[in-house]
Write the structure tokens for this entry.
Amino acid sequence: MSWRHTDAETPVRRGADGQLYIAAQDVTAMLRDMARAFDLQARSGGAWTVEGGSDPVRVDGDTLRTVADILSAQADEMDDQLLAISGRNDQFRC
């Protein structure tokens, strides 16, 4: 599995307070991208080469699908929370 999410895909900004920030919709999109990658690996046999290694590593398809489901559920929950916040306070619109 060779999934890489780059800074070009997810803009990271430094706030006036020095903290790093990522837009909430980028976080949920990244979670969904990861879930799709895990699901794809499950469908293709669950093997990938670890970076720096040469032997493929096998992971059970059910485990990969479970991870994908958890990541998707986290993204859905985050979207629900953000929608609830945006309904109460305009400064948090997503």
About this structure: Strands lie at 12-14, 20-22, 47-49, 56-58. The two ends are 31 Å apart (CA to CA).
